[in-house]
Amino acid sequence: MVDKVISMQGIVKKFGQQVVLKQIDFQIPQKRIIGLIGPSGAGKSTIIKIILGMEVADSGSTTIFDAQMPDRKLLGKIGYMAQSDALYEQLTGQENLQFYADMKTLKHSKQSIQHVASVVDLTKDLDKRVSGYSGGMKRRLSLAIAMLGNNDILILDEPTVGVDPALRKKIWAELKSLRDQGKTILVTTHVMDEAQLCDDVALLLDGQIIAYDDPVSLEKAYQVDSIEEVFLKAEELDNANYSNR
Amino acid sequence: MRTIAIAKRVTKELLRDKRTLMLMFLAPILILFLMKLVFSVNATTDVKVATVNVSNSLVTQLDKTSHLTVLKYDNVSKATQAMSDKKVDAVIHSVDNDLYVNYSNIDASKTKATKSSLKMSILLNSLQQMQKNLQPLGQRIVQPKIHQKYHYGNADTNFFDKIVPILMGFFVFFFVFLISGMALLNERTSGTLNRLLATPVRRSEIVFGYMLSYGVLAILQTLLVVLFTVWMLKVEVAGSIFYVILINFVLALVALAFGILMSTFAKSEFQMMQFIPLIIVPQIFFSGIIPLDTMAKGVQAISYILPLKYAGDALSGVVMSGDGSGKILPEIGVLLLFLVVLTFLNIQGLKKYRKV
């Protein structure tokens, strides 16, 4: 039984002169929903790219299930949803799902597609071309693609942007049920009340994880009563540290 | 398995993009048809020559020349005025048995035509004089009859027939290059490439999937273009049509690999278009449409790095002189070499987006 599903140690990433991630140590245990929050430009997407092996860190190591990343075959165990919808607009929803099912070489692709489509409430629209979808529908299809197959890990970059509240609730319920089945889920988000729904929250600021705990403990530690305030206070403290130096 | 799934997806997307399909299948046919109209026009130029004080016998001889009309003028200044008014293309006037010719020279081909007609006429004129002088002696000059045969083509073979095999190759190259480059670029800018690379797909499977779908498309395009040129434009293919299709198929794959490689250097569709003057236009110059042997040696060397030159040579060989597999093999070999190198670069190039 592997406790740490994803483990990042001493990760430093530079793009040219700019240091995007400085010394990231980040362990993600199994069966948890982890929220990664931080302002834009903090390095959330870079962390995800390093986990997926799209970028290689300048130093430090990333392991998934104790296997060193980047590793192509391990990607079969990860469901990924990007910030942009990244769909084939000329194809129907069904064809999009089928394509990614083929890429993952899923055995029972039909049932799998049916299942994820019903979760995101797209069953009726599967035969329409994506170019005719609304923004929310595209987002849902994108999420469905990430959930295809029996992934042990889900990495979702802003999964609920442009999704109406009822559906958001449904998506979170599904994420929780996936967690209860033993999956590990990493979510980035801007929406602070969503952070409250996570099991653990990591605050990313200036390329560093400045806090990582469950929401209640974080609120206690910062003596505030919402994650949003935790975030603001953390940012304040960070700035204060800067000026004190 | 994944390769086929990618090929299927790319093909599906293409089939649903009606504009691109039209570009691939109708545009080459339309352009070939227009080129046929433009280049099949009789290439001879009509020349008008003004003569002043030139002997009657020479004028008659000149007048007999086809595509040349003689206008007599009383004096040089009037004739020169006519030339300034662009009514005549040359003024010939005779002083003491010498001929003074003044060419308008706006159109170099007309100057050339006038020169050769004049020389011919003078020659024929003196020949006739000689014959007249010889007649009393009971002798005759026997002129040989000319029997002409054409090893390749026929009397009507013209510039269009020469460039048509090269043009076929060019269209295949150009459209496959552009459309495949755009397709991969689109995949990159829309983020689907990143998403695709977040699955366990191999980088090579993506490249081969693209090759498979565009290869099939290129075969169809070539078939259409070849059948159109053979049946509708009545261009004779001396060799086997199969070889024509084979060469175009290999060329299409090279174009595809080229397009994909170039798309990695472009950030937008517009930047992709900017490669046309850099990559496509030089290939036209060195493809054989303009005879390479007339160029300077150093310039000729450029052609050896351009795939279209090899395809053009092979296609011309098959269409014009009926080359068989033995003769086109070296050219196909070079094209395959291009293909292997470019494909390798493409698979490596995708590392930019995923490190494994």
From TrEMBL, chain A:
Domain named ABC transporter: residues: 6-231
Entries under Pfam families matching the protein: ABC_tran
Keywords: ATP-binding, Nucleotide-binding
Name of the molecule in the record: ABC transporter ATP-binding protein
Superkingdom assignment: Bacteria
Cited InterPro entries: AAA+_ATPase, ABC_transporter-like_ATP-bd, ABC_transporter-like_CS, P-loop_NTPase
Molecular function terms, GO-annotated: ATP binding; ATP hydrolysis activity
TrEMBL record, chain B:
Ranges where the ABC transmembrane type-2 domain occurs: 127-353
Location (main, coarse): membrane
Keywords: Cell membrane, Membrane, Transmembrane, Transmembrane helix, Transport
InterPro entries with a match to the protein in the record: ABC-2_transporter_component, ABC2_TM, ABC2_TM_bact-type
GO cellular component, one term: plasma membrane
Family: Belongs to the ABC-2 integral membrane protein family.
Protein location: Cell membrane
Entry protein name: ABC transporter permease
Bilayer topology: Multi-pass membrane protein
GO molecular function: ABC-type transporter activity
Domain of life: Bacteria
Regions crossing the membrane: 21-39, 163-185, 206-229, 241-263, 275-292, 328-347
